Amino acid sequence: MWRSATVRTSLGFVVLAIACVFVADFEISAHAPWAELGRLFLGLVQPDFEAVDYLGEAIVRTLAFAFVGVGLGAAAGLLLALVFRHLVVRTSCAFVRAIHELFWALIFLQFFGLHPLTGVLAIAIPYAGIFAKVYAEILDESDPSPSKVIPHGTGLVSALAYTRFSQAWPHLVTYTAYRLECGLRSSAVLGFVGMPTLGFYLESSFAQGQYATVGALLLLFYALIATLRLWARPRLLPFYLLAAPFLLGDGLPIRWQNVSRFFTEDIVPEPLRQGEGLAGLVPWLGDLLANEALPGIWNTLVLTQIALVATGLLTLALYPLVSHHFTGRHFTGRVRGALGHGVLVVMRSTPEYLLAFILLQLWGPSMLPAVVALAIHNGGIIGHLIGRRSNEVSLRPDAPRGIERYAFELTPRLYGPFLAFLFYRWEIIMRETAILGILGIATLGFYVDSAIQEIRFDRAMVLIVITALLNIGVDILARRLRNRLRLRHTAQSEP
């Protein structure tokens, strides 16, 4: 029997999402959207690999940015995890991970330009904050007993290596491998702001209506993700990490005076630059809040709430695809399970930004493409996790089958972990919702991108800080809800 608090919380989220639907913009405004979708599907079925003469370069750059960015992020995150209990470290990590990689890329583009350092830092900085939090959780959950029996005088590094690290190592490796998959998605998406990765060529091919080329690039990206465990073996990782920095490509020389000007002039609020002081700063902030921040926050919250509930509903519908309680253990069942697993791999491997970009081209600018993109990607992730969790549940021999097994045997037992995973993804969905504004949806990212295009970096930085604070607030709320409902989940449970 589900606890009443869990039921009330779930119903509250659903009712709030329904209310948000009535104020959301779901209009399909593109000309012949379903015909365009059919052309895209035809491109996936009949991809033109021969037309992609830049294929090798796109793959290499995508892999290089992912390996260097994730490698630096993991190294920094491991060091930060050792001192994560300090308030300053926790706060700093929460802030940097609350800012999406594309926002970081937009910032670094202003003074590094299309230099490889832009892409590397855009991945490494937020990932360092994520790694620090998760590594600290994993280390804290290790058994402290071995540390009590080590010889007196053992050095700190040796003590950690033989006690906590030895226990946590499998979880650290598993989570780092998952983050490498995320890094590949982030690296591909960086192409949408000009970095020479798969996303750059995808955007240009789509703009020219070359759907066969788009299909080839998408299938190639799915193949990279699906075969990650085959080619990213632990013994090969040192070679990849050593080679990757040399494969990032060249960029224009960095002009360090641009860096200095950005921090000393560009991001300083205009009234302060012109000597108006607080008398000019207050109306400047008021105008920014009224005309950009508040509309952006409202649309971000509305879209996030709808996408969160849509993700949950899609997850509950999809997890049976990879649960042997529904597919069966015989040959036919294993085939069905493999097909279901393939569907969820494609769903979770497709970056939300990339999917939203495609749907916006097909359906026109509205919140609908963003909701569908967020629900598909996050539903694929949580559906995989819940399906895997369902395989650990033992049913009695006379347990009912079909819809009764789903509704009365498995779903009630899995609902707690399902909510825990959903609340964990809440802050991530918020981050993605904000960044989708760059594609034209009026979330906070739309106003950030507009300010940068108008070379008003002071306004852009204020909006980015507001975005980060909003994400931190949602993360705190989600954590409190998990604690209140006694939902146990740690990030090491991610795929």
TrEMBL record:
<feature type="transmembrane region" description="Helical">
    <location>
        <begin position="297"/>
        <end position="319"/>
    </location>
</feature>
<keyword id="KW-1003">Cell membrane</keyword>
<keyword id="KW-1133">Transmembrane helix</keyword>
<feature type="transmembrane region" description="Helical">
    <location>
        <begin position="58"/>
        <end position="82"/>
    </location>
</feature>
<keyword id="KW-0813">Transport</keyword>
<keyword id="KW-0472">Membrane</keyword>
<feature type="transmembrane region" description="Helical">
    <location>
        <begin position="211"/>
        <end position="232"/>
    </location>
</feature>
<protein>
    <submittedName>
        <fullName>Phosphonate transport system permease protein</fullName>
    </submittedName>
</protein>
<feature type="transmembrane region" description="Helical">
    <location>
        <begin position="428"/>
        <end position="448"/>
    </location>
</feature>
<feature type="transmembrane region" description="Helical">
    <location>
        <begin position="239"/>
        <end position="256"/>
    </location>
</feature>
<keyword id="KW-0812">Transmembrane</keyword>
<feature type="transmembrane region" description="Helical">
    <location>
        <begin position="102"/>
        <end position="125"/>
    </location>
</feature>
<dbReference type="GO" id="GO:0005886">
    <property type="term" value="C:plasma membrane"/>
</dbReference>
<dbReference type="InterPro" id="IPR035906">
    <property type="entry name" value="MetI-like_sf"/>
</dbReference>
<feature type="transmembrane region" description="Helical">
    <location>
        <begin position="460"/>
        <end position="478"/>
    </location>
</feature>
